[in-house]
From TrEMBL:
Organism: Slackia faecicanis
Record's subcellular location: Cytoplasm
Protein name per its UniProtKB record: Arginine deiminase
Family membership: Belongs to the arginine deiminase family.
SUPFAM superfamilies: Pentein (SSF55909)
Length: 415
């Protein structure tokens, strides 16, 4: 089957998009970690081995694994001119200082003939040591200072270390995609890759977009959960603004064709790094089960958005029932059970949520990929009868994301 098809969080996973961590993790300057939204410098070789095991686990379940970098290279191959268009946009958004420097870096990147290597290089970033820096006669003062001053970074273009969290820059909903505008500049550049896949890739070029990367407000895929073909949950979080959910609702209900979603449930979660997205505190693992970080219970407000009666109108109401009841109403399934991360121990819950104990990837109802390190939560899940596919996680978890964050389903079987 061609194209995108995702109508739940749990239907059998047929195709998924990953990104194998690459040289972008070698270009991570330790004193820039906060700005780049990363928490440590991982050991690349081990991170890649862990990631390869993740991909292998998915293939063992019959899932086709697609790689973001490969899809972009295929889009360039299929459409002459796409690579040049991408490069122009990439250079414009790369934050390169000086007037002479952008053209120099552009030529340098363009000299990489192989599309796949070219794409990976744009992801890795560019260091000053790689190119001939401009000299006084051919450059502005800004070029000179940024190229040669010790006070400046050793990098001309930042790496994109968060790319292996393919969940966030775009999100598949039904047969379309929310091409996101991200909270931070460092991650907004990642959405360019999705833009070119959904514009030029032979299998995905006609995908409708429910959100555009130049929107006025930000939304990230970790906040978008497909509860059913008719219902979406979206977090209001550090990364997703309520105003972005208004835009999404307008697009889905009124401005675009082909989306089956009739109800959007907005979950207002605390605004902090540990809970950056809804999927860091809440993921669906079976028809009637969700994992949840207990710390969000009690503070959570849930709003329901539906199509209004007159063009452009969206009706909004707040739900005051328990979360279980709201989820029963939203999914149409009775007897919803919430399984707390950390098994009820607040210290274990906080520790394991920090390492994404609530961030599971469901490959079919009741079968989930989890990080090995979250043993307290994993024990609880075993006892609840879940089938756990356990993956190594010492290095990948340093980026603050788990199996759901590291995957973007392109196709799931309908339930
Ligand atoms: N869906 C997710 O929760 N993704 C994890 C993203 C982690 C990344 N370091 C970030 O801060 O954006």
């Amino acid at each position: 089957m061609k194209g995108i098809h995702v109508t739940s969080e749990i239907g059998k996973l047929k195709k998924v998009c990953l990104h194998r961590p690459g040289d972008e993790l070698l270009n991570l300057p330790p004193d820039e970690l906060e700005r780049l939204l990363f928490d440590d410098v991982p050991f690349l070789e081990v991170a890649q081995a862990e990631h390869d095991r993740f991909a292998e686990i998915l293939r063992e379940q019959g899932t086709e694994v697609l790689y973001l970098e490969q899809l972009v290279a295929e889009a360039f191959k299929a459409h002459p001119g796409a690579r040049e268009e991408f490069l122009n946009e990439y250079i414009e958004e790369a934050g390169i200082k000086g007037q002479a420097m952008p053209a120099i870096v552009r030529d340098y990147l363009n000299s990489i003939e192989d599309d796949f290597e070219f794409v990976k290089k744009t992801m890795a970033g560019v260091a000053k040591s790689e190119i001939d820096l401009p000299h006084a006669s051919s450059a502005t003062l800004d070029d000179m200072v940024s190229a040669h001053s010790d006070k400046e970074s050793d990098l001309i273009i930042d790496p994109m270390p968060n790319l292996y969290f393919t969940r966030d820059p775009f999100a598949c909903v039904g047969n379309g995609v929310s091409l996101n505008r991200m909270y931070a500049v460092t991650r907004n550049r990642e959405t360019l890759y999705g833009k070119y896949i959904f514009k030029y890739h032979p299998e995905y070029a006609d995908t409708p977009l429910w959100f555009q990367r130049d929107a006025a407000s930000h939304i990230e895929g970790g906040d978008i959960l497909n509860l059913s073909n008719k219902a979406l949950a979206v977090g209001i979080s550090q990364r997703t603004q309520a105003a972005a959910i208004d835009i999404l609702a307008q697009n889905i209900f009124w401005k675009t064709e082909g989306c089956e979603i009739e109800k959007i449930f907005a979950f207002d979660i605390p605004n902090c790094r540990a809970f950056m997205h809804l999927d860091t505190v809440f993921t669906q693992i079976d028809v009637d089960k969700f994992t949840i970080h207990p710390a969000i219970m009690g503070t959570l407000r849930v709003f329901e958005l539906t199509k209004g009666a007159t063009p452009g109108e969206v009706d909004i109401k707040e739900h005051t029932d328990s979360l279980e009841k709201i989820l029963e109403y939203a999914t149409g399934v009775d007897g919803i059970k919430l399984i707390p991360c950390g098994g009820g121990d607040p210290i274990a819950a906080a520790r394991e949520q920090w390492n994404d104990g609530s961030n599971t990837l469901c490959v079919e109802p009741g079968t989930i990929v989890v990080y090995q390190r979250n043993n307290v939560t994993n024990d609880v899940l075993y006892k609840e009868g879940l089938n756990l596919l356990v993956m190594p996680s010492a290095e990948l978890s340093r980026g603050r994301g788990g199996p759901r964050c590291m995957s973007m389903p392109f196709q799931r079987e309908d339930l």
